[in-house]
């Protein structure tokens, strides 16, 4: 697909980028799955089995769609998945930037002001670029026309865009609050994981004495 547009070199670079991205997502997904399963579900599994399970959930459906739809269908699937990722990206990126810049959450590991400012700038650029690409895709699709159905489609897209931007602004301006009153709080009766760890350390020291 890329060979006909940018040549063989771009095809190789894109393949290497996908390979590196897959390896990175495998490692982060394995670690995240380990923490979630052990901390919340209390389900213990070897990392190799967890990696095979999580990657199979992502690879098997994609491979089946690629084999059934062919090259053209795979291209459309990549475009559609990119659009979906661009929609959900702000809701994963903005909380991450806010968390790493909050001393309430990160403590001594909080990101500095320059790092937070740089992260916000990069996030805004990425979000703006994704919104522009989605808008360009909608305009090129031919759904918005001068007909009644086209006008209704345009109005629906405008309302959805305003709601989407409002959600992003609300997420960016919402203050960070810690809530340990649910199932997580039940696991830490002292009020926080740090206090629970301190109590465990004190108990261990007393048993040693």
Automatic annotation (TrEMBL):
Entries under InterPro entries matching the protein: NRAMP_fam (IPR001046)
Transmembrane segments: 48-70, 77-97, 117-139, 151-173
GO terms of molecular function: cadmium ion transmembrane transporter activity; manganese ion transmembrane transporter activity
Keywords: Membrane, Transmembrane, Transmembrane helix, Transport
Membrane topology qualifier: Multi-pass membrane protein
Family: Belongs to the NRAMP (TC 2.A.55) family.
One Pfam family here: Nramp
Annotated compartments: Membrane
GO BP terms in the entry: iron ion transmembrane transport
Secretion signal span: none
GO CC annotation terms, alphabetical: plasma membrane
Protein name: Metal ion transporter family
Top-level taxon in the UniProt lineage: Eukaryota
